[in-house]
Amino acid sequence: MINQLTSPLLADLYEYTMLQSYLELGMEQTAVFEFFVRKLPPGRNFMVAAGLEQVLEFLENLAFSAEELDWLAERFPPLVINFLKDFHFTGDVHAMPEGTIFFPNEPILRVTAPLPQAQLVESRLMNLLNFETLIATKAARLVLTAPNKLLVDFGMRRAHGAEAALLAARASYLAGFSGTATVLAGGLYDIPVFGTMAHSFIQAHEDESLAFEHFACTHPDNAILLIDTYDTEAAASKVVLLAHKLREMNVRIKAVRIDSGDLGEHARRVRRILDAGGLQQVTIFASGNLDEYQLQALLAAAAPIDGFGIGTALDTSSDAPFLDCAYKLQEYAGKPRRKRSEGKATWPGRKQVYRSYSADGQMLGDVLALEQHDAQPGEALLHPVMRDGFRIEPQAPLLSLRQRTLAAYAQLPQALRALGIGPAYNVVVSHALQEMAEQVDQEALHAMQASTPNATTKPRLC
User: Fold this and answer.
1) pLDDT of residue 457
2) Domains of the chain
3) CA 20 to 30 Å from 77, out of 29, 161, 275, 321?
4) What is the pLDDT of residue 248?
5) What pLDDT does 382 receive?
6) Element (H or E) spanning 246, and its range?
7) What stretches in the chain show pLDDT beneath 50?
8) What phi-psi label fits residue 271: left (phi over 0), alpha (psi between -120 and 50 degrees) or beta?
9) pLDDT at 459
10) Concatenated DSSP letters for 81-100?
11) Secondary structure letter of residue 20 according to DSSP
């Protein structure tokens, strides 16, 4: 049975049609592809690199089953099937570590491999890096808006499929979220899992107070009560009465959750009721189609909310649901290559990104340069992570990647941390890279002129 998420058939058809052509033409020399984002998504000042772990796992385990080969054999010639029969990725990968802040046109991943291999993996690599980077970047905005609040991924039910829900939980935790409500993500990635109750639990009981008591007694160490099913403030008063009863049973109410209405005003009223009842230690958790702008408004209004569940806006990155990303050929057979399409031109060659910092550790600017013979001052951001098809270092714990991301936020200029559009971050293209681009353009122009057909030119035949 074909595994839907790990199958190499999870690719665009043109990866296979090009593969056939490369093999028939003998085009199997070393190619260099780079993944980058052409421009910032709307409203963003920066991006957060994520998804590298899933890319490396995909490349290390890439192989074709008999069933997959049988399916391909009905559509492609034996040359292709023989190539894929014992296929494994043998290339090198350089990448920015997950959690790195980056900007447009800066490659966050580079693949160096024989052309058929490097081309074949394009679709899935883009799929993974695009999505996790998109969600990590969205999550970063929420974390920077509410840096001292409990933030929980609530988005599984609105995510675009099962894998999206899992990877959104991972990417948001990497970006600084406190945890997720998605149970499987907790098991797969060792992410803290949070949960409360649904309104159906309250509705299934004849009495709201009895529902609260039953839930608290069955979850004495994690009693978080949803109080907006009927009347939010009346429910808060019931919680006060119940808390004193439960205290005699050594059961403590941990928090209350509000999921509808004017969250700020409800939270203020509920806070007064809880405090008057001696429940200062009970926290208030809010949810309900929240995004970073609503969080900003609630915090600016000093709403007494201790944590937030963020669902749809996070897992779909609703205001910017895609990245203008690309995976482009930058070198083949030892020669730099450059796409010159209008509005989509690329910088040729193998590149490195160098970052400079101020004396107090703030990011000052980046230089996009050639990897060889073009070293620039500052920190080199791309590092070797895979050699000959095997990762160089063991998988990094997700918690350490999360800590890295939070440290990166502290290095961002203050103006770029805000929700509003800040000044453009300074990314400079080195003189050597500009000269290479001009040289590649000139060579392409000469080649085009030399190959212009004339009356005596004989057509090429297959």
Assistant:
1) 57
2) 13-135+322-448 (3.20.140.10), 196-305 (3.20.20.70)
3) 29
4) 87
5) 98
6) helix 232-247
7) none
8) alpha
9) 58
10) HHHHHT-----EEEEPPTT-
11) H
